[in-house]
């Protein structure tokens, strides 16, 4: 049987129909929403042999002059960057707070969010190894906070300073949960990495309370801790009634852990340390971050009102 062949005219009509269908599909596809005055930059972590992105939000007045702005560095940027950008902008417009550049630090390219943050934000490999990986074929990774902190200070800082008008003498770290562990890692090793730390709901139960051990070790060797820290947590982040408190995720009382940790810092009477702790009523681990952020920014950024 001979193959059926389209006549040239019919072939032309068929091709036109295909093109029109493709154009119609393209025209009807919804476009993505983009935040104004934001940029995405790729950056290579040379020592870590990994690729990341930084998300940058510029103030409304950035194009108008030569001013250098305070800079906010926020981890867990995949969810936290738009929150920080929008709240900082709103505080400027409606509360007169000074403007700032916002820099979001993404998860590593090719890694799941849980996998990346567990590895990059935690200070130790936990003694309890009962963790499942969120990435097939790869074991869960932990304990690279020190190396990731060096990536921030050694590679991200110069990149931001070179490409944007920022005041690198006024750097703010913003973290929550595991992100706050990363902040504490830097606070207790290189406290001058940032000028102000906003730390929400730190996972102080992690690895049987390893951060308490690190706090004691720092206090043994140092007579000062030059830092400004705002701690915030939800009042509902408590241990359920009837359970015995311990340094474990299942039986942690995160509110009492944070009160204890802040009390230890204050007990050493470090001359240059300033801490504030705020417990937000009716908020839990999932809902408290915007409150911590707002009050943490107010504790550092100036307001004209």
TrEMBL record:
KW Signal (keyword) present: yes
Keyword Signal: yes
Gene Ontology MF, one: hydrolase activity, acting on ester bonds
Coiled-coil stretches noted in the UniProt entry, renumbered to this chain: none
Keywords annotated in UniProt: Hydrolase, Signal
Family that this chain belongs to: Belongs to the esterase D family.
Matching PANTHER family: SIDEROPHORE TRIACETYLFUSARININE C ESTERASE (PTHR40841), SIDEROPHORE-DEGRADING ESTERASE (EUROFUNG) (PTHR40841:SF2)
UniProt protein name: IroE protein
Phylogenetic lineage: Bacteria, Pseudomonadati, Pseudomonadota, Betaproteobacteria, Burkholderiales
